[in-house]
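Run log, item B.
One chain of 289 residues. Sequence copied directly from the ordering sheet:
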Amino acid sequence: MSDHTGLLSPASAAADLAAAAAGVEIRIITELPELHEVFWLFDSIWHSDPAHAPVTRELLRAMSKAGNYVAGAFDDTGLVGACAGFFAAPDRREIHSHIAGVARAAQGRNVGWAIKLHQRAWALSHGLMRISWTYDPLVSRNAYFNLVKLGGAPVQYLPDFYGPMGDAINGNDATDRLLLHWDLTAPDVDRVARGDRPHRWDAGALRAAGAVTALGRTAGGEPAPGRADGRIVLVAVPSDIESLRRTDPACARRWRVAVRDVLGPLIDDGARVSGFDRAGWYVVDREKR
């Protein structure tokens, strides 16, 4: 295992501590029976249409055989979390983390956090500098986890990236995604991985300091377009888009279009998504990167 950055040893130690705190053992999976368990775990989370399954057992087998990242988190009950990713083009020194999930019974224990730290240590041991993945920009808890807890950076807005998925999480909504880059050697990433408290973003305080609201919320929970002419711009998302898709799918679609029309052009124009308020606000810095 290489340690080209000097971060591998502390990254591995942080991953071990996170796994112990979550009550799991995380290990690379190569054998067919456990790969089959990973497939069924993902199926139990997404309930995907077989025609649109995010990954198959056969693909997991091939990815594992080719040396890609396929890992599982195990506790006394068995497999409770998993993640699979594949290598990007060699010059990028990156893996793309395609899918990760945690069983409902194990949620709230920071199993997902432990898996990502394991993936970081694994990537560093393979001489990689970055992990990328996509996530739905409307899912507030994922935005907080990816941007604040992990220290990732959205770099591209991808409208309807996967096309219709029709699973229990995405429903019939368009599959817009943000492409995220996780710089494994960045000081902020290393700091939070070692257990330092992440920065707390406060949209109200930012607004009082001069930030403008490019997209807000009405009292009834509808998207409310604003202005994006300030240096720091705030973009709202619903508090719980997954529930909204079930209870008011038309409103969920309006949120999809509103966030696409506001956040997409900001990122395309070179603005940097610098943080996320847990109350459901992206913090965007319009100064050119």
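Observations after the first pass:
- The first strand starts at residue 25 and ends at 28.
- DSSP finds nine helices and twelve strands in the chain.
Flagged for discussion on Thursday.
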